[in-house]
Amino acid sequence: MPLFKSQSQRRNPSPPPPPQTSGGIFHRSRTPPRTSTDSASSSGSSTRSNRGGGGFLGLNRDKHGLDSDPSIRTARQKVADAERAERQADEALLAARRAADGAREQVKMLEREAIEDARRAKAKQAEAKIITKSAKGLGRH
Description:
The structure is a single chain. The protein is mostly helical. It has three helices and no strands. The protein starts with 6 loop residues before the first helix and ends in a 6-residue tail after the last helix.
C-alpha cells in the first residue's frame, strides 16, 4: 500500500459473501429418507434398508434413483460374482498348494525309504560276501 494515500482510499470494501455450496464431501442430504414401503413400491422389492443420506463418506448413493437401474444392478451383480469367483479361486489355490506340499512330503519320504533300502542292500551284500568267503573252505576234507 502506498505511503502517501488519503484515508478515504484506504478503506477496504467489505469482502464478498462466501459462495453457497452443497456442503462438500461430508454433506448430508436434508431430504427425508425413503421408507421401506416407498422403496418397495418404487423398485418392486426391497432388500436394502435405507438410512437416509448414508452411503460412502456420507454421500447419497441413490441420489438420482440409479439403484433401480437394470444396468447398474447387472454391473453390481457381475462385480459380486467376480468377487465370489476370486474367493473360490483363492481357496482352490490354497488347496492346490496343500496338495503340492503333501506330494513333496510323500516324495521326500520315498527318497528316505530308498536311501534306507539301499543302505540295507549294501550291508546285505557285504554280509553275503563274507559268507561266500567262509563257504569256500567247505568240502575240501
